[in-house]
Amino acid sequence: xxxxxxxxxxxxxxxxxxxxxxxxxxxxxxxxxxYTEGDSEISSLLDYNLKTIMQQxxxxxxxxxxDIFLKNISDILGKSDKIDLDVDFLVYIKILESFPxxxxxxxxxxxxxxxxxxCEVIKVSTGESFYSQIFSSQGTYTVGRYQSDLxxxxxxxxxxxxxxxTYIVMSLNNLFKIKANILRIEDSYVYIDAGxxxxxxxxxMFEFVNTIEYQGQSLDKYEGVLIAEEVWDFESKLxxxxxxxxxxxxxxxxxxxxxxxxxxxxxxxxxxxxxESFQRNGFGFEIGIDNYKHFYMGTDFQFLFEKNLLSxxxxxxxxxxxxxxxxxxxxxxGTSIGLKNVSTKEGNSYxxxxxxxxxxxxxxxxxxxxxNCGLGYNILLPQKxxxxxxxxxxxxxxxSIRF
Length: 403
Prior knowledge:
Layout: H1 2-26, E1 31-37, H2 40-57, E2 61-64, H3 70-77, E3 89-104, E4 109-123, E5 128-142, H4 149-175, E6 179-180, E7 182-186, E8 189-192, E9 205-214, E10 217-231, E11 236-242, E12 254-258, E13 266-276, E14 280-290, E15 295-305, E16 309-324, E17 329-344, E18 349-364, E19 369-381, E20 392-402
Parallel strand pairs: 1-2, 1-3
Antiparallel strand pairs: 3-4, 4-5, 6-12, 7-8, 8-11, 9-10, 9-12, 10-11, 13-14, 13-20, 14-15, 15-16, 16-17, 17-18, 18-19, 19-20
Helix pairs in contact: 2-4
């Protein structure tokens, strides 16, 4: 019985050691040490914000000065040759200046809080500083009925620290981009040889990289938009949101690289000529968002003119997008809901609730510029009014810009 117990204990020990070693080998993410100097309250809040956001993001392993001894920090900052830390990079942030400012107008009172900080990234193994940047951040908060002067001050400071945190994290993500090879392509999905082991996380944005030889030199061309939809230990599944236009992404020289400045949303601006009931002419201006998943939402402003009338409309536009040929052509089916304000030559003003079912077609000449046309039908309420405009047909022709 004693021998059996010893054998079981030995097996448990070996399995524990094996699991510990495999876990260490699996996690190949870079380890960052966050250290902030300067204003103690701002430094503590910034340390906490950076560690929390970077750990939630999952791309890095993060420690702060609370996790190690101060003498090791001194060694790194002093570029000592004898550095013994399980850390890849030191992110050293110095608060250079912080100052609040209270703004007072006849209608509003608010606090502005400004922070100027220097961020330096040091490679721990060599003591080499290879990145340095000065950031300026501002936070504001209004003093109101339910927000005292002191509470607005601290809220403005917190907003300034939050903004500074965002700037630093975005810079680190851009500095340490993840690059991966393409394993296979299935329809609109790309599988890559990188996963949680090196910090890929769901929602991470990528683009294609095509390496070509030109005059004896290797040149990289970046194009396209991808998003990580599923992430496993050593592999990830990316959805192609925009395919490259200038090269074939199925080429063997093409890989993918992280781009933190890309967005899973695409902004669209339309400027167009508008006709209503073949009587009133005008123009419109629209700002909207396309989420690459067939959904569109925008705000529409319209100005219409007739001999004795001036009309201003503001609408919320919602609808379904049907993509054709890699999104070069788009069909919109949806509706606009809003208000129509009509002013007459005599000085009278009338307001109508407006519901407009509509369809639109856009054709893009290149990645950003396109032509669009649309057809709609305005349903105005109340139906009976001193100024009876009636329900009417609308036609629009214009230019679309997306970015």
